[in-house]
Structures are given as structure tokens and as C-alpha cells.
Backbone:
């Protein structure tokens, strides 16, 4: 009513669209390829191992120099223009997640424990709603998206599962050569062939005439140049999500699964995105499964390639069984936090935009030190705000060269700091502000503002800095505007001075009064919260500890610090010894309707690192507000 339109009736096609939008949410390869190309055009491809380092610590995966030489003259520097992000808040932003499963040998009960907390962009209403689904062959509880006819993450009576995004390479950009006499024909192996053109009619509220968009598709995929700011080359996108698949079948097959073999078989139907699945069952088994089909490509997929030669064409999708998986490892632990699941550079799924692995390393440390895990110890790990990179960055602050009195005082605060990113401390605010300004000092003047913004948006800039700190005299530690300022410690000192000035403007001139949580806040903004409506429709703000490398992930954008942009979108702990003892929580609540008593009713629990019961047995649910029954027509 507020928007002045009547929604159409929901159809099965809409559910498929929801699944495709989630695949888009998980896909970042296209932007990564564009960024690599832009950096290579500006500095040469030799800069990529430094600015986009591989998480393994090895040199970056070598790319096809022949292909790059062919396409580089045709490309111009570009960035992703406003696309779905303009009307779908959070779409396409960087995301994360944790999940782990503990074997009976690792738990106090002698039964597995399954844990998951997907990290997704902040949204209101919540992307998840929690349901208990019972009927026919289905009895399960867990979390679903609006429009999906089943549960995406959760458990039934026999198995439990959760997912993290797997940053495999599911997208490739092909540079196409157009026919100079007919722009809808493209060269392929020495001759020109017609592209497919689909005319889309888009009705826009308030306009008498619809928008007409012609979608041009070559044999490699749709031409996406119109969505890229500054790009002149015709770029076609090959993407696994554009291939036919049965994602909704996967949801229903997983819900019915009773054992690992059922779950493993269901994973074969998942196409589009790729996710790492953590699995546990009541029979005592745990497992890992990389879910989602990967492209069978002759190249490495890291840079745009020629489309006209045919040399780089996909030959289909790899079989699902090619994906890495594991069952009942000897250590009794399955864990994934968006990190690479294989170590062999020649293995399927090695290539990708994998997480550096700080969260995974910390979780592994905590689990290794927990002989007999239970719900209480699991909660402690899942809500841990420790950030492993702090130690190296803190050392760089301690060694920074500065004579500015305020910066020296801030340096002393950091030197005496334990590294705890608590919301009520001053040192984390100094540390995080220094990190923002250190990235600017090291990279921004060399890249320039537009490319720096693209770099910050599409790459793990802080990880590149983390690696650079080990080389104190690296040429990147220089100030282009001041030849006398060079070296890691000198640049770190300037960044500390910048940080103190920044914090003084935000929090006042007294450093003893600074608090990390006063600037690191989370607000759940409603899309309709315009002007005074924000007071009614938004939830928050809440002061937050931690950062983007914490297990309890509370990331912010370097380009617009320090508000939280990514968070644990739900938390779940499944106890296979007693399913009714399981726990869950969402950041906002079950309802997306402002004014409902179930809207925002879980936010304080979530913010405090607390949970509510995740009941499975009908007789343990307590008083029911009502029952929703679905009947076929």
C-alpha cells in the first residue's frame, strides 16, 4: 500500500529467481577479473601478486600471458556500475561464514555437534526466517529464504548441515570482437556469427512507457558492458548460474536425506553458486562437501580472455563428483570459513578468491584445545571476537615513527593493549582507524581515487597490507607527494597521525574517552526508512566489538568506515545427542513487519552473543500462536 502497487501472485518462477539472486550474492569473480585487468593495465601484470596475494602465501596463480596480450589493447579501465545493488540492498557485497562439525570423539555427549553462522550483508527485513516444517516425508527445522519451498540450513531427525560461501571461480569474462558492419554479429574462429537478442520490457511505476532493454548473448554469455562504467570492450559473461540446474530439488532432497550418501547425492543437483557444506548425523558421522558444479575450462579463469579464438571456451561443467569432499577425518573435525578446501594447486577448486584463513585458523586452534566440546564451549567459540591479524598490525603501530604528541599518546595506548577488540576500549578504535588510513597511505596515492575505490570494494586490501608489512622497505611504502617519507615505519607514523585526527573529529579530543563501539555500530536499515520513517522502521544502532577477521564477524567497509556492513545473519548450534537442546538466533527476529512483537525481538539476544532454544519436538515448543497449513489446489 505504501508503495502504491499490487504485487502479482507468487509463482514457481519467482522461487527460481530468488535462488538465482542468492547465486548473484555469492558471485564475485567478474568484479575480481575486472579489478585484475584494471591493475594490470595500469601497472603491468607483475603487480598482481602484491596487490591481490594468494591466501596460500605462494605467488599468485599464473595467468595466460598469451590471452592477456590479445585482449589488453581492447580493454579500458572500468568498474561495476550500479546494478542490482541499486535496488537489492547488500547484493553482490563481500560475504563470509563459519561452519564446523565435531565427531563423537570430540564431544562430551559422544554424539556430533554441528555449528553454522552465515555472514551476510546487513538487511532489514532479515534474509532468513526460521521454520519448523512437517508433512509427508518432511520433519525438520531450520532457516529459509522467503519464496524457497523448504529449509536451506538446518536439520531433520537424522542429519544436520550448514553452509559457507565457497569462493571458487564460477565466472569468466570473454572479450568479443564485433562485426564492424553489424554490431550484433561477433567473430568466432575466423567468421562472424549472429548473437541472440532478447528484448526485455520492464514496466516502471510512474512512467507511461516501459523501458526496453535488448539483452545480447554470444555463445559465451550475455554482453555485460552496459553494466560497467568506463568499459569500451564487448565483454560476455560465462557463469555457471546461467546453466540449467535443479537447486530447488537439492533443497527438498537434502530435507529428506537420512545419511551421508543421501546428502552427497543431493549435492549433485546444486548448480549456480558454490558453497562449502559442513555435515553431521545422528549415527556419528561428519563430513565436508564442496557443493555446486564448476566450469570445465582450458584457462585459469583469473583474467578476461579472447572470445573470438575458441581457445578458452568452456566445454561444460565438471561432474559433481570431481568436487572435494571428506567423511570422518581422523582428527574428528570438519571446519570451513570460506578458506580453500584443497592444498594441491592442480586440484579441482584450488583456483578462486579464497579467504586468507584467519577465522579458520582461530577456530582450529580453539577446537584443538577443546577435548570434549559441549554446547557451552561451542557458544564461546562461535561468539569469539578475537582477530588474528591484530598482532602483526599492532606491531607495525608500535614501530611507527611519529613525533606528533597526540599520535605518540595513541601509540602508547596501543602498546599497552592486549589486542582485545572490545567495544568499550579506546585501543581498538585507534587500531582500526590506523588500519583504514594505512591502507590509504600505502595504496591510494598510487592507484588514484577511482581505482582505489574499486580495489577496496573488490579485494582484501588489508590482507595485501598484512603481507607487505613483512617487507619494511618495499617501494609501496612511499608517499608520492613527499619524497622524504618512505619505508613502512614512516608511512605507519603518518597513518597514525591521520587516525588520531580522524578519531578526534568523530569522538572528541580526549583519547581516554574514545570507545571502539561508539563508531563501530550496526543499524538494520529498512528500505523504506526515509527521513523520519527511520525512527519507526530501522532497528538500532547497537555498539559492536570485533572486526571483519573475527570469528564473530563484524566487518565494515574501508571506504566508508566504521559502520558494520557484514554480520552473522543467523547462528545455529545443533546437538545430535538431543536435538531439543539445539540453539539458534537471528539478528532481527522472525517477522519482517515493523510493529509485530516478533520484529526485532531477537536483536538484543543476538547482540549479546546469546541464543534461544531451537526446539524440534512438537511437545517441547510451548504455547503456539497459530498454525499455518499448506494444502494443494
Residues:
Amino acid at each position: 500500500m505504501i508503495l502504491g502497487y499490487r504485487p502479482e501472485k507468487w509463482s514457481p518462477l519467482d522461487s527460481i529467481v530468488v535462488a538465482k539472486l542468492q547465486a548473484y550474492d555469492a558471485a564475485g569473480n567478474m568484479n575480481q577479473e575486472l579489478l585484475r585487468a584494471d591493475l594490470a593495465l595500469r601497472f603491468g601484470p607483475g603487480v598482481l601478486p602484491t596487490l591481490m596475494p594468494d591466501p596460500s602465501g605462494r605467488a599468485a596463480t599464473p595467468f595466460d600471458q598469451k590471452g592477456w596480450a590479445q585482449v589488453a589493447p581492447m580493454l579500458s579501465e572500468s568498474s561495476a556500475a550500479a546494478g542490482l545493488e541499486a535496488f537489492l540492498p547488500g547484493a553482490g557485497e563481500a560475504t563470509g561464514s563459519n561452519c564446523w562439525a565435531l565427531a563423537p570423539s570430540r564431544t562430551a555427549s559422544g554424539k556430533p555437534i554441528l555449528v553454522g553462522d552465515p555472514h551476510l550483508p546487513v538487511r532489514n527485513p532479515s534474509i532468513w526466517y526460521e521454520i519448523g516444517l512437517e508433512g509427508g516425508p518432511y520433519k525438520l527445522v531450520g532457516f529459509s529464504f522467503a519464496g524457497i519451498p523448504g529449509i536451506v540450513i538446518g536439520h531433520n531427525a537424522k542429519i544436520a548441515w550448514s553452509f559457507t560461501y565457497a569462493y571458487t571461480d564460477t565466472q569468466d569474462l570473454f572479450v568479443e570482437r564485433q562485426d564492424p558492419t553489424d554490431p550484433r554479429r561477433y567473430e568466432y574462429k575466423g567468421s562472424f556469427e549472429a548473437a541472440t537478442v532478447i528484448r526485455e520490457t520492464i514496466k516502471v511505476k510512474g512512467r507511461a512507457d516501459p523501458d526496453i532493454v535488448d539483452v545480447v548473448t554470444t555463445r559465451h554469455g550475455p554482453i555485460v558492458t552496459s553494466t560497467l562504467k568506463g568499459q569500451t570492450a564487448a565483454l560476455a559473461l560465462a557463469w555457471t548460474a546461467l546453466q540449467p540446474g535443479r537447486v530447488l530439488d537439492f533443497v527438498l532432497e537434502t530435507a529428506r536425506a537420512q545419511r551421508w550418501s543421501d546428502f552427497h547425492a543431493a549435492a549433485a543437483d546444486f548448480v549456480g553458486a558454490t558453497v562449502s557444506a559442513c555435515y553431521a548425523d545422528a549415527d556419528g558421522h561428519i563430513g565436508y562437501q564442496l557443493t555446486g558444479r564448476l566450469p570445465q575450462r582450458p584457462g585459469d579463469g583469473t583474467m578476461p580472455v579472447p572470445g573470438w579464438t575458441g581457445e578458452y571456451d568452456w566445454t561444460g561443467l565438471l561432474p559433481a563428483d570431481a568436487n572435494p569432499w571428506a567423511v570422518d577425518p581422523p582428527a574428528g573435525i570438519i571446519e570451513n570459513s570460506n578458506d580453500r578446501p584443497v592444498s594441491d594447486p592442480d586440484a579441482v577448486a584450488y583456483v578462486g578468491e579464497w579467504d586468507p584463513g584467519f577465522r579458520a585458523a582461530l577456530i582450529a586452534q580453539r577446537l584443538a584445545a577443546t577435548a570434549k566440546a559441549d554446547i557451552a564451549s561451542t557458544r564461546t567459540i562461535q561468539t569469539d571476537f578475537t582477530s588474528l591479524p591484530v598482532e602483526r598490525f599492532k606491531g607495525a603501530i608500535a614501530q611507527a615513527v611519529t613525533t606528533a604528541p597526540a599520535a605518540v599518546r595513541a601509540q602508547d595506548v596501543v602498546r599497552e593493549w592486549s589486542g582485545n577488540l572490545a567495544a568499550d576500549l579506546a585501543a581498538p578504535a585507534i587500531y582500526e582507524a590506523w588500519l583504514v588510513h594505512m591502507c590509504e597511505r600505502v595504496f591510494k596515492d598510487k592507484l588514484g581515487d577511482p581505482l582505489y575505490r574499486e580495489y577496496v570494494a573488490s579485494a582484501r586490501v588489508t590482507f595485501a597490507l598484512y603481507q607487505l608489512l613483512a617487507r619494511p622497505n618495499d617501494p609501496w611504502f612511499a608517499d608520492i607527494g613527499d619524497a622524504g617519507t618512505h619505508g613502512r615505519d614512516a608511512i605507519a607514523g603518518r597513518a597514525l597521525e591521520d587516525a588520531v585526527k580522524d578519531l578526534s573529529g568523530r569522538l572528541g579530543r580526549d583519547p581516554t574517552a574514545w570507545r571502539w563501539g561508539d563508531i563501530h555500530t550496526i543499524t538494520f536499515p529498512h528500505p523504506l526508512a526515509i527521513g523520519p520513517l527511520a525512527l519507526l522502521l530501522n532497528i538500532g544502532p547497537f555498539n559492536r566489538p570485533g572486526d571483519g577477521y573475527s570469528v564473530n564477524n563484524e566487518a565494515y567497509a574501508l571506504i566508508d568506515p566504521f559502520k558494520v556492513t557484514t554480520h552473522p545473519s543467523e547462528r545455529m548450534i545443533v546437538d545430535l545427542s538431543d536435538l531439543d537442546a539445539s540453539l539458534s538466533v537471528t539478528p532481527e527476529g522472525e517477522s519482517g513487519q515493523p510493529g509485530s512483537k516478533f520484529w526485532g525481538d531477537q536483536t538484543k539476544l543476538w547482540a549479546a552473543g546469546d541464543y534461544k532454544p531451537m526446539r524440534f519436538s512438537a511437545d517441547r515448543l510451548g504455547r503456539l500462536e497459530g498454525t499455518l497449513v499448506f494444502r494443494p489446489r
Summary: The two ends are 28 Å apart (CA to CA). Residues 390-521 form a domain with the Penicillin amidase (Acylase) alpha subunit, N-terminal domain fold (CATH 1.10.1400.10). Residues 359 and 365 are 10 Å apart (CA to CA). The chain has two domains: 8-82+93-169+243-373+570-633, 390-521.
